[in-house]
Amino acid sequence: MQIVSLFDYTGEALKPWAEAGYECFAYDIQHTGVHRDGISFLHADLHVSATVQTIVERHAGKVRLVSAFPVCTDLAASGACWWAGKREADPEFQGRAARCAMQCAEMAEAMGCDAWYVENPVGALSRLWRKPDHVFDPCEYGGYLSESDEHPLYPQHIPARDAYRKKTCIWHGPGFTVPPKRPVEPVQVVCVRKRTGGTCRYAPQAAALGGKSQRTKNIRSATPRGWARAVIEVN
């Protein structure tokens, strides 16, 4: 059986499945077509209908689970201060982003897989699609990782055992089981507001990573590994 992950750059959602012997495919526009650690990282522009159809036909009837991490740039509440300007330039900017997320669910169903989930942060998708089925912070699944854990890709930014808060929403199909939580204590960074002098608390990567570079986006959107481990345990 196969596991398919859409808009997946890191492949972290697939690693537990690959270790268990499943055939795993990560599709993202940044990939160049390499096979590593049991995962095929394949280039795909998932905004192109012909590409979507090709992927569906390739995996139809063979898939155990589909995960998806559609682009949240135009949907996340953290970017709400820019929505008015974006809407003035393009009234349909959020509608297209939401349809792309909903399309992930449609792709899973077209493959014949009802065990699917779509991930996005808190934001407009709850209004443009429907309310999420599950909401969590990564630290709530950190207990699925070992006490000696260290992030394999971004240890300087992401705390060990996913010990950070970042409200994450999950929309899922009828065949997907939400795993029970095993929380760990989150790490937080206290920052001083420049204008008011007051303090606020952030996850370490949120406090340290600003800007719009692709690397920054990849780090801030990396799949929580504790969640990925928990998903395979119950699915």
How is the secondary structure organized here?
Elements: E1 2-6, H1 15-19, E2 23-28, E3 34-36, E4 39-43, H2 49-59, E5 63-68, H3 83-89, H4 93-110, E6 116-121, H5 125-128, E7 134-136, E8 168-172, E9 189-192, E10 199-202, H6 204-208, H7 214-220, H8 225-234
Parallel strand pairs: 1-2, 1-5, 2-4, 5-6
Antiparallel strand pairs: 3-4, 6-8, 7-8, 9-10
Q: What can you see in these coordinates?
A:
With 235 residues, this protein is an alpha/beta fold. The chain contains eight helices and ten strands. The chain has a single domain (2-234), classed as 3-Layer(aba) Sandwich (Rossmann fold). It has helices at residues 15-19, 49-59, 83-89, 93-110, 125-128, 204-208, 214-220, 225-234; strands at residues 2-6, 23-28, 34-36, 39-43, 63-68, 116-121, 134-136, 168-172, 189-192, 199-202. It is globular and about 55 Å long. 37% of the residues are buried.
Identify the CATH architecture. 3-Layer(aba) Sandwich
Strand tally, please?
Answer: 10
The global form is globular
Q: What is the radius of gyration computed over CA atoms, rounded to a whole number of angstroms? A: 18 Å
Low-confidence runs (pLDDT<50, min 5 residues)?
none
Helix content: 25-40%
N- to C-terminal separation? 13 Å
CATH-assigned fold name: Rossmann fold
Q: Which series of helices and strands comes N to C?
A: EHEEEHEHHEHEEEEHHH
Largest sheet: 8 strands, mixed
Q: How large is the share of residues in beta strands?
A: 15-25%
